[in-house]
Amino acid sequence: MKIKEIIVVEGKSDTIVIQNAVNADTIETNGSEISDETIEQIRLAQEKRGVIVFTDPDYPGERIRKIISNKIPGCKHAFLPKKEAMARNKKGIGVEHASKDSIREALRHVKEEYIEETEKISWNDLVTAGLIGGQQAKARREKLGKSLKIGYMNGKQLHKRLMMFQITERQFADAMKEILQEEQER
Q1: pTM, whole model, 2 decimals?
Q2: What is the pLDDT of residues 143-186, one digit of tens each?
Q3: Residue 115: alpha-carbon gap to chain centroid
Q4: From residue 76, how far is each of 53, 88, 122, 164 by CA, in Å?
Q5: Could you give the maximum distance between any two Cα atoms of the chain, in Å?
Q6: Nearest-angstrom CA–CA distance, 120 and 11
Q7: What CA–CA distance (Å, rounded) separates 83 from 98?
């Protein structure tokens, strides 16, 4: 599998795992304190070939993703479910722990950021669906993020990502139907 865009990862271990799974070039941020020089590299990469941000499904990874999105609009994003990024000994989480198949799957379902975001799913829709507030909200957001391939996030981030990736009412409704069906079968 050849990837045209340049993949932004956090470190060398991520680069090695990505390059073992697919044919791709990477830029490493070397942690969540992204230098101005690295931001410029990413900006140039976005102009020339496009960029896929593929960071760890944890707080520092989300912080890097947010910094890049704010400074370089229009990037694409790949997400790994936490379960697929867990170290074998359960003592770490990151892209470097994912299988080749998980990496390829995440890259097959890349989401594109839309610069002109329009709200298709409102905050009230999220509350009504039980994704914000309530005992099952966190579990439902986790399942929704996995189903829509947009990663796990809190309620505020969910609302932003639904707009950022222009998730349609139909996609949202289908995913929620699946989640509610699964809950009833238990």
Answers
A1: 0.79
A2: 999 999 998 899 999 998 998 888 999 999 999 999 999 998 87
A3: 17
A4: 6, 29, 23, 10
A5: 52
A6: 35
A7: 9
DSSP secondary structure, the chain, as one string: -B-SSEEEESSHHHHHHHHHHSB--EEE--SSS--HHHHHHHHHHHHHT-EEE---SSHHHHHHHHHHHHHSTT-EE----GGGGB-TTSS-BSGGGS-HHHHHHHHHT-EEPPSS---SS-HHHHHHTTSSSSTTHHHHHHHHHHHHTS----HHHHHHHHHHTT--HHHHHHHHHHHHHHHHT-
Q: Is 49's pLDDT higher than 90? A: yes
Q: Which two tokens stand for residue 66?
A: 């947010």
Tokens of 163: 């707009």
Euclidean distance between CA atoms 109 and 122, whole angstroms: 24
With tokens 């409102």, the residue in question is: 122
Beta bridge partners of 6: 51
